[in-house]
Amino acid sequence: MQYGYFDDSRKEYVITTPTTPYPWINYLGSQEYFSLISNTAGGYCFYKDAKLRRITRYRYNNVPLDLGGGHYYYINDNGDVWCPGWAPVKAELDRYECRHGMGYTKITGARGGLETEVTYFVPLNTNAEIHKVVVKNTSGQKKQVKLFSFVEWCLWNAWDDMTNFQRNYNTGEVEIKGSVIYHKTEYKERRDHYAFFSVNAPIAGFDSDRESFMGTYNGFHNPQVVFEGKPSNSVADGWHPIASHCLEVQLEPGETKEYVFVLGYVENAFEEKFESKNVINKKKAEAMIEKFSTTAAVDKALAELAEHWDNLLGKIKLEHEDDKLNRMVNIWNQYQCMVTFNLSRSASYFESGIGRGMGFRDSNQDLLGFVHQIPDRARERIIDLASTQLEDGGAYHQYQPLTKKGNDEIGGNFNDDPLWLVLAVVAYIKETGDFSILDVMTPFDNDESKSTPLSDHLKRSMDHVINNLGPHGLPLIGRADWNDCLNLNCFSTTPGESFQTTTSKDGRVAESVMIAGMFCYIGDEYVTLMEKVGNQKEADRIRKEVIKMREVVMKDGWDGSWFLRAYDDFGKKIGSNENEEGKIFIESQGLCIMGNCGTEDGSAIKALDAVEERLGTKYGLVLQNPAFTKYYVEYGEISTYPAGYKENAGIFCHNNAWIMCAEAQMGRGDKAFDYYTRIAPAYTEEYSEIHRTEPYCYSQMVAGKDAKRHGEAKNSWLTGTASWNFVAISQYILGIIPEYDGLKIDPSIPKKWDGYKVTREFRGDVYDITIKNPNHVSKGVAKMIVDGKEVQGNIIPLAGDKKTHKVEVVLG
Questions:
Q1: Of 393, 460, 628, 739, which is the most buried if we count CB atoms within 10 A?
Q2: 305-323, pLDDT tens digit by residue?
Q3: What is the pTM of this model?
């Protein structure tokens, strides 16, 4: 069942009913100010950091769903109260539509001869979101209605806001000036900032105290002021500050009126000395309000935003007979990659924005999906990440985006983390040709006195693996590798106790075959990079370590038909046919093959066949099989999940891409693309009632074959699935691969494809690439012609002339 449709020409997903299976959201903002908005106008906003600079309040896990706060507008049409987004009043609408686009959302509702359209977006280079509200009288009679806005202020630190009531109930402060409501809680203390909510019209009244607006025992669905049609002009003093404007709107038949609301944030406001800090400096807010005081200015900003996204998404353009594939590659996958760049795993409808900041491994992997769009910001992100690295090559697992410092509460010891930095740097240099990044002096643990060139950080990342090997010569897993829930060094004697990192009595420690595969895969990339910069000694050193690691993997990491997953703290195999449950895991199959383990003796093909046989479902590949049906204290968190969910045999979409890459690498393009279509959002749209989450963005997890709700997705938007699936489809399957010396063309596609076209911007040049498949093969370039001349090999030479070049590739 579908709940809307793709409008590819406008780069929008159009939702035609407010009652989607789960709230379907969009993200506004791409620089410092961000906002989440659902298809019924739920959500919240923040500046840089969803934990430390939360602007509006939202209640997760709420009942009813997605009624924990939002960017709401209420209409009182002569006693008939409704909302253009349906929620929270939930009055039946004559017409409803939500258009989620690139950085904006437009929600339209109509009832009783009145139509209201609200467009939400964050203009470029602006710390505010704009709400353009258009009210139209579609009846044949004169209308006199009241329009109420509503947001609820969060008291800045979202965690403290939820817990420290004894303080927060006494600190809320607002100030009202004309049609602007200022949220200045704690402004006069150590925090030099405030927020505001304005409208470009005279108001009939306002409210800034939640209880006065709602009524003590009312909710978002029946606010007292709105239903009475009369603002109370309340001024919050402690308790719960909000911002609500009341506008009296008179409309002749057919008449339309437009309003501009600005919800903004100001930092560093103490530019002038005031006798009392209780009086805020409104100059910055007034400048923002003035800039967007007309609908013409708003429309101009919206057009600039559209041009911005057109430029970002235009770096790669696919022309294929499959519309679903086109929209994924050209629009929605790239868009999601930019969202993960902005937010990592911090703030979604599944992540509260409080517990997690920017992940080290997460952000390094995310970079693979957006480096072609914003190489300059990718460079900055790499330096930010490397600056949190520890001197021994390890890394903090997360850092807070506001401070850019490592998160001490989480710490480090996730032993896959350092290697992802190497892969991110390699991807950046291949895309840009900018080797100078290796010379950037970069601190360890944000201590400038401990700065070394970035190249030294990469060396220490590689050495962190080499210096932490277990009894088989495989890498130690640490607290965990990519699978955070496989805690093989954690042991607790009583179920329910906190896991403690320990070593077993005989002194052995857990090892990861997955990290071994990663080391081989990323090690090859590191070796090539060192050769490119003329450091042959370092290249030779790591090449020997990679060769040695491959030998260890095939000796002690191979189980006969697939790769083992790990050895636990007692030296027992994990992911082996010898195990009762969890006989095969997906991660080591993909990464070991990508690391060229077993690719020459048939082992890789045998492992891939086992993946389909044991892990395959119509909704994607499960993480392991059989699912754990009981609690294994020596395995850590993984077996605490019910069978079929999350890491316990759920379909973890992130690592499905590694199997796509492995299949493509082995020349099995049909299987690689088959796996791609099982989880790509556009292909899930037709069974949205089962899938539940948005049909335009990837989810982290889909319930596996052991689950009672097989096929149901969770944790949409913020997932490494976005970047890795873009790498899988654009590089491994479509075969357009950035290399140091040019674009490499190496498709691995379904045999039935006749061909396709790709336009690719690369280092200032544009390449119009036509791929032809007359012999219907999956892999192999028979001939390549560039600007009318045949070239040897399959790498398009760098032109460097800022022109467009025609490339014809014949497979065979």
A1: 393
A2: 999 999 999 999 999 999 9
A3: 0.96
